[in-house]
Specification:
Blueprint lengths: L1 E4 L5 E4 L7 H4 L17 H12 L25 H9 L12 H11 L5 E2 L6 H9 L1 H27 L8 H6 L1
Parallel strand pairs: 1-3
Antiparallel strand pairs: 1-2
């Protein structure tokens, strides 16, 4: 876990588990899928790995996550996540089904000040950094579109009752 810091001094919180777990945990065997894009393809195994990771002194955080289920499938549907989370939660360990965003918000809230900041690449992170760095820009565009949709809906409702509503904006509407 680290802050990826771009050359423009913008930063984004990154989760990078090595595909070779011995690099971060000193475990000698390859365990399941942490570090690849199908980390949660087998939820039970992912939970075992996350538990082991959080109990390893090399990983100093009390939160771990596994993301990715469907891989390159065109569509993946499962209701297994909540069931496994309930089964694997006990008095010492809470398993949370995450939308990824809540994991990063919680992690940032707890560990932001202690994380290193790096401007480096770990193998194939170039594409990951590109997509990750677009998240806020994309979210901003999505929020803007949602506001536009709401404004269009209100305009339509008013214009149905008042045919002269916003008639003075017809030139701007045509330009848009």
């Amino acid at each position: 876990m680290f802050w990826y810091k771009g050359l423009d001094d913008q930063k984004v919180l990154m989760k990078w588990y090595s595909v070779n777990p011995s690099m971060i945990t000193n475990r000698k065997e390859y365990r399941y899928n942490l570090g690849n894009y199908l980390e949660a393809s087998h939820q039970g195994n992912a939970i075992i790995d996350c538990k082991e990771l959080m109990n390893d002194p090399v990983y100093p955080f009390g939160l771990a996550a596994a993301f990715g289920k469907g891989g390159d499938d065109l569509k993946t549907l499962t209701d297994n996540f909540p069931k496994i989370a309930k089964e694997k939660t006990d008095k010492d360990y809470e398993v949370i089904v995450s939308n990824e965003i809540d994991f990063f918000k919680d992690f940032e809230k707890q560990y932001a000040a202690t994380l290193p900041s790096e401007t480096v690449s770990y193998g194939s992170t170039e594409w990951g950094n590109s997509f990750a760095s677009l998240a806020e820009v994309s979210a901003s565009v999505k929020r803007g579109i949602e506001k536009l949709r709401a404004a269009e809906a209100l305009y339509t409702l008013v214009a149905l009752k008042d045919k002269t509503f916003a008639a003075d904006l017809s030139t701007q509407k045509e330009k848009a």
